């Protein structure tokens, strides 16, 4: 199955000059969704994972599925002000501006093995910020896992200290 058949381009979203990779057609097709989930799980191989960290919001779709299959906990990372408990934050730059991410201070425990997941690796700013948060909490990043990697933006260079795996490359 070619998952690229289920990803559509939306030009000039969220701002002029950006070509947004929309995965909602993939999410809406049960066969493609199952195939993608199994393929993302296969990228992890047999590594021990204690927590799967997913980034707001589209990273949540597969991160929670991966956590369930890996018998690991799921930890959401959200934009500033969205989590209800005490948080740690990290500011970062992305391809169309700046933002701040937060994680609950008790989301990761010292020494836990962590899989970081998001839907798209673009410039790498979001994933690098999440990796910093995980490490500040004492977690060990086993892998950064993505549905899509936009190779021309060279986001994996910001993650060069980690194992980075992606299903689809553009």
UniProtKB/TrEMBL annotation:
Its EC number is 2.4.2.7. It is an enzyme of class 2 (transferase). It comes from the Bacteria. The keyword Glycosyltransferase applies. Keywords: Glycosyltransferase, Transferase. This is Adenine phosphoribosyltransferase. It comes from Meishania litoralis.
